[in-house]
Specification:
The structure is a single chain. By secondary structure, this protein is α/β, with parallel strands linked by helices. It is built from 21 helices and 17 strands. It has four domains: about 180 residues, 3-Layer(aba) Sandwich (Rossmann fold); about 100 residues, N-(1-d-carboxylethyl)-l-norvaline Dehydrogenase, domain 2; about 150 residues, 3-Layer(aba) Sandwich (Rossmann fold); about 80 residues, N-(1-d-carboxylethyl)-l-norvaline Dehydrogenase, domain 2, CATH 1.10.1040.10. The chain binds acetoacetyl-coenzyme A (CAA). The site of acetoacetyl-coenzyme A has 20 residues, from helix 2, helix 9 and helix 18.
Length: about 550
């Protein structure tokens, strides 16, 4: 019979535990909040007081309600105070031995029908369950950071979890105003399994100096509309937690893309754990602060545009939305703009001879793009900058132009995105990249710098995540709806991976993924077979009326 769980315990009052305590109490439940030392208990209480205080200050919580929320929480250092709890959530740090020890202690303290839930991000719930004397009443209840804000709870059942326990915990998630997605026990569950490969890759971009931390973060926020960039998000999650999650995922998958980037381990060793320690990829005003302060790695403002060439006359070649968008904003920014919509006509290109900067805004197959830049290379005045919006490789176009030092990539991941990836090849002159930066900034677009690798920043980070989601669907671990829900509700993504794939086009996703795989030879980047099959069958997404979902044909 269904049980209403009204008395709940939480063990561990770090960022997650304190957030979970707040969520439970705000839903009217009575909560026993346990920490190991008085000091840690006071810190945990402080988290709850600050967070509810902020809710009052923002008018989201009545002061009297806040008092009631705090009154419903009993803060204690005695495990024995959990003797009457119907459910206890453990939220201690992500270390297997520690979590196992806490669950064993709870097993000894709590009555036999108390449900023990673990908030592990990636450890095997099955292993943790069988270490207790009640494996049928152990379950995963995975909240997302910040717990009061993120709507997702992954309810993780093992092969031995009693169905009534799953039903009770799913009903509790509902009562908390969360969306519970019930899934099996697999490292990383849905959201972390899709998130952490992406986060790890972002770290390696910074580690190898392919791109700077601000550029990687801006690329994903402005290029994909994500609420935070990957490095800022890692600081929120905690670098130590991220390390543990990646280690666990690597142990299960043996996929090198999950092996924690060496920089992550170095940061853990150095105590740079993210917001909680006041320093991670960024430096914060203090421990637990979200306020970023300048540090010795913050790029000096304006450095990128020094030495740029003067630009007054701008040419744009192309008829698509990217060309129209760039031409429109260049006009508004006060440049003298010449637009050539027919890139094939040599006479038309002559009109661009006096331009200081010309953007070849295809898009087209590489050979068409090559023919265009070859023609432009012969027409433009010495010193003019030749930019291409091509997906690359930019160096092939640069070489074809006969003036490689003047060629730079200006990749616009999405015509509506306020972001431009400024791509330097091995041959691009520094002042040409600087000119492109200054031009983008004058257009009100945010320029980020990278070099000429497949997918630049945005596509290299976005498409493998989409591909992983297809693999997860193909493995029947979760439905497309649940995977989309996990990413939108757990990580604040504006759209889930299958919504993105249907909109971008499965054929486009497949082409990008093939390029990434061909360049890296990384087995984990091989296109998902299901993606290949759907494209072969013509199910390429919204434009075809069918992709991962049916769409009314346009
Ligand atoms: N506690 C309580 N409330 C908080 C909060 C916190 N720590 N941080 C933000 N909020 C609330 C704010 O009060 C605000 O509410 P109102 O709009 O009602 O006033 C709202 O959230 C938005 O906050 P802000 O305006 O301050 O900031 P923002 O718009 O930049 O949003 C964010 C902040 C919600 C964190 C947003 O950036 C976001 O969604 N980021 C993605 C977070 C994410 O991906 N989380 C999952 C990480 S993975 C994980 O947790 C699993 C794991 O196992 C590791």
């Amino acid at each position: 019979m269904a049980r209403e769980l009204t008395e709940i315990g939480v063990v561990g009052l770090g960022t997650m535990g304190a957030g979970i305590v707040e969520v439970l109490s705000r839903a009217g439940l009575s909560v026993t909040a346990v920490e190991i030392t008085d000091e840690a208990l006071q810190r945990g209480r402080g988290h709850v007081e600050t967070s509810t205080g902020r809710a009052v200050a923002r008018g989201r919580l009545d002061p009297a309600e806040r008092d009631a929320v705090l009154d419903r929480i009993r803060f204690t250092t005695r495990m024995a105070d959990l003797a009457t709890a119907a459910l206890v959530v453990e939220a201690v740090p992500e270390r297997r031995e520690l979590k196992a020890a806490v669950l064993t202690a709870l097993d000894e303290t709590c009555p036999p029908d108390t449900i023990l839930a673990t908030n592990t991000s990636s450890l095997s719930v099955t292993e943790l369950a069988v270490g207790t004397g009640r494996p049928g009443r152990v379950i995963g209840m995975h909240f997302f950071n910040p717990a009061p804000v993120m709507k997702l709870v992954e309810v993780v059942r093992t092969v031995v979890t009693e169905p009534s326990v799953v039903a009770d915990v799913a009903a509790l998630a509902d009562r908390l105003g969360k969306v519970g997605v019930t899934i099996g026990d697999k490292a990383g569950f849905i959201a972390n399994a899709l998130l952490f490969g992406y986060l790890n890759h972002a770290v390696s971009m910074v580690e190898t100096r392919y791109a700077g931390r601000e550029d990687v973060d801006a690329a994903m926020r402005l290029g994909c509309g994500l609420p935070m960039g990957p490095l800022a998000l890692l600081d929120l999650i905690g670098i130590d937690t991220a390390h543990e999650v990646l280690e666990t995922m690597y142990r299960e998958s043996r996929d090198r893309l999950h092996a924690p980037s060496p920089l992550i381990r170095q940061m853990v060793t150095a105590g740079m754990l993210g917001r909680k320690s006041g320093r991670g990829f960024y430096t914060y005003a203090g421990p637990h602060s979200g306020e970023v302060v300048p540090d010795d790695r913050t790029p000096a403002g304006g450095a990128a545009v020094s030495g740029s060439r003067p630009v007054r006359r701008v040419g744009v070649v192309g008829a698509g939305p990217t060309a129209a968008g760039l031409a429109g904003s260049a006009g508004e920014a006060g440049y003298e703009v010449t637009v050539v919509t027919d890139g094939g006509g040599a006479a038309a290109l002559e009109e661009l001879a006096a331009c200081d900067l010309v953007v070849a805004a295809g898009p087209g197959p590489l050979d068409t793009e090559q023919a265009l830049v070859t023609a432009l290379g012969g027409v433009l005045a010495p010193g003019a900058v030749l930019a291409t919006t091509s997906r690359g490789p930019v160096i092939e176009l640069a070489t074809a132009s006969g003036r490689a030092a003047d060629v730079v990539g200006l990749h616009v991941p999405h015509p509506a995105a306020p972001l431009v990836e400024v791509v330097s090849t091995v041959a691009t002159a520094p002042e040409v990249a600087a000119t492109a930066h200054a031009f983008c900034a004058a257009l009100g677009r945010h320029p980020v710098s990278c070099t000429d690798r497949a997918g630049f920043i945005v596509d290299a980070l976005l498409f493998p995540y989409l591909n992983d989601a297809v693999r997860m669907l193909q493995a029947r671990y979760a439905t497309a709806d649940d995977i989309d829900a996990a990413m939108t509700l757990g990580c604040g993504y504006p759209r889930g991976p299958f919504q993105v794939l249907d909109d971008v086009g499965l054929d486009v996703a497949l082409a990008v993924q093939r390029d990434l795989y061909a360049e890296s030879r990384e087995p984990g980047l091989a296109p998902a077979p299901l993606l290949e099959h759907l494209v072969t069958a013509g199910h390429v997404g919204r434009t075809a009326g069918r992709g991962f979902r049916d769409h009314p044909a346009r």
